[in-house]
């Protein structure tokens, strides 16, 4: 893993939300709402029947300025009300949402560790269309913070 491809870096955003974990979980797992919060996601669609479950596949349509690209993600971890994680096959990234109860509501942590090198396709795509993997990682982390802030606002409204 090298810092140049963004693979050695865990991206992270977190917030304390003044709403119970069940309410935050319901919003988080309503993927039709996610494009309202994420600055990069246009749409997220299930590719297999059965709803949200471990090993479910999702098609993500992403955009950055004029660049639009698809991703296929697979739910890797699902602990309702606590943890949701999926692996994006095209990049090798794992996206993790963790919820924990607090006295005032819910602690939300959104992480993106990359446990191995980014895929060759991801490095090429990031270099050609996204200003490089490290620059795109900076944008992703900023976007994650925006997503968490928008989820928080929705849960608290």
From TrEMBL:
InterPro entries named among the record's database cross-references:
Polyketide_cyclase/dehydratase, START-like_dom_sf
Entry coiled-coil feature ranges: none
Q: What is this protein called?
A: SRPBCC family protein
At the top level, the lineage of the source is: Bacteria
């Amino acid at each position: 893993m090298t810092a140049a491809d963004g693979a050695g870096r865990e991206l992270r955003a977190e917030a304390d939300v003044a709403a119970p974990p069940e309410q935050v979980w319901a919003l988080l797992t309503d993927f039709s709402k996610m494009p309202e919060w994420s600055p990069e996601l246009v749409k997220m669609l299930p590719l297999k029947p059965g709803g949200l479950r471990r090993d479910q596949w999702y098609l993500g349509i992403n955009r950055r300025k004029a660049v639009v690209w698809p991703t296929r993600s697979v739910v890797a971890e699902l602990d309702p009300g606590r943890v949701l994680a999926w692996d994006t096959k095209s990049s090798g990234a794992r996206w993790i949402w963790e919820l924990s109860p607090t006295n005032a509501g819910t602690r939300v942590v959104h992480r993106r560790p990359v446990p191995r090198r980014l895929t060759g396709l991801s490095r090429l795509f990031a270099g050609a269309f996204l200003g490089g993997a490290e620059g795109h990682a900076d944008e992703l982390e900023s976007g994650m913070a925006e997503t968490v802030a928008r989820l928080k606002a929705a849960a608290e409204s």
